[in-house]
Design goal:
The chain has an 8-stranded parallel β-sheet with strand order 2-1-3-8-7-4-5-6, with helices on both faces. Helix content is about 30%, strand content about 10%. Helix 9 crosses helix 10. The protein has one domain: Arginase, Chain A, CATH 3.40.800.10. It is built from 11 helices and 8 strands. Helix 10 links the parallel strand 7 and strand 8. The longest helix is centred in the last third of the chain and has 23 residues. The termini are far apart. By secondary structure, the protein is α/β, with parallel strands linked by helices.
């Protein structure tokens, strides 16, 4: 396990005597209750699970698993998103003391949500990493849990799409919040070839993993003259559109189809998210993005992620906190959909 990764994809079992010690009250490790509250743990102490959720000992009965993917070897700009999952988890301790505002219900009481830790892979064997990510996520989904992935760079969404399509069927619809289309063409693709965080949706569309006609990209503000049939709500339109109206347009595109929601943190303006590898000015605010996600109620979420948080370039953890906040909004959205079912 690399220095930048967490506890790994599985957590070791602890002796029962540890949980009997009245001085040890770390719920992320010691509680047998998957819905245990950690609100009496101060934000500066304790294990760095996402929002103090228990680290998974088993996926039996789990509704949603938080999975870290500390991978950033496909970046074209500044590296460092491998540290993203840990940074997001740390920032999420600021959110764990009470339910997400203004949600009327607590998703952690509605659903069994666990932190599955980080996917482990050999960082020296780059060509094998995509398949290892895909296999790990497939194993979580096959156990019956949904997945919220914490990246890592945006390439991680490609193996996540493959795993999600294997579970829910292809093609999926895609909701992509991003400054970049990530659909630039690339002929050097395949085993042992280039792995790039700017081309994976080009290939996902070409391979039938996602359907551009029922997918939408939100916040784009970099040049790509071939939209490949994707619907686009670009960065300028975002500034002139309310979050509720944007969500209405998004829902009209994806309908009730199984949909993957991906949020590249550089979709936010650098004023709100400086800690990322390829920041682009003119983006959405954290408030706008948060409200837009909340307004997506009713979307059939098959998978979701937050990617490209690179804490080395962050200021006061504001990017990591934005990532954690948006991830929590996704959990609320996921819980609302399950409640409706």
């Amino acid at each position: 396990m690399g220095l930048w990764a967490g506890l790994g994809s599985r957590v070791y079992k602890f002796e029962a005597s540890m949980s009997d010690d009245p001085h040890r009250k770390e719920p992320s490790f010691l509680s047998d209750d998957p819905k245990a509250s950690a609100r009496d743990m101060p934000m500066w102490a304790g294990a760095l699970s996402f929002c103090r959720r228990p680290y998974a000992r088993t996926l039996e009965g789990v509704d949603l698993a938080i999975v870290g993917v500390p991978y950033d070897w496909s970046t074209t700009g500044r590296p460092g998103a491998r540290f993203g999952p840990r940074a997001i988890r740390e920032a999420s301790t600021n959110l764990a003391w009470e339910r997400a505002w203004p949600s009327p219900t607590d998703p952690f009481q509605q659903l069994c949500v666990v932190d599955w830790g980080d996917i482990a892979f050999d960082h020296g064997k780059h060509a094998e990493v995509p398949e290892e990510i895909e296999a790990a996520l497939k194993s979580v989904m096959e156990a019956g849990a949904g997945v919220l992935m914490l990246g890592g760079d945006h390439f991680c969404t490609y193996p996540a799409l493959k795993a999600t399509a294997a579970k829910h069927g292809a093609p999926l619809s895609l909701i992509q919040f991003d400054a970049h289309s990530d659909t630039w063409p690339d002929s050097n693709w395949g085993e042992g070839r280039r792995i790039d965080h700017g081309t994976m949706f080009y290939h996902a569309a070409k391979e039938g993993l996602i359907d551009p006609a029922t997918s939408i990209q939100v916040g784009l503000r970099t040049t790509n003259d071939d939209p490949m049939g994707f619907h686009i709500l670009d960065g300028n339109e975002v500034q002139r559109t309310s979050p509720e109206e944007a969500a209405k347009r998004i829902r009209a595109v994806v309908g009730d189809r199984p949909t993957y929601l991906t949020f590249d943190i550089d979709g936010l303006d650098p004023a709100f998210a400086p800690g990322t590898g390829t920041p682009v000015c003119g983006g959405m605010s954290t408030w706008w993005a948060k409200e837009a996600i909340r307004a997506l109620k009713g979307v059939n979420l098959a998978g979701m992620d937050v990617v490209e948080v690179a804490p080395a370039y962050d200021v006061g953890q504001i990017t990591a906190l934005a990532g954690a906040t948006l991830a929590l909004e996704m959990i609320c959205l996921y819980a609302a959909a399950r409640k409706a079912d």
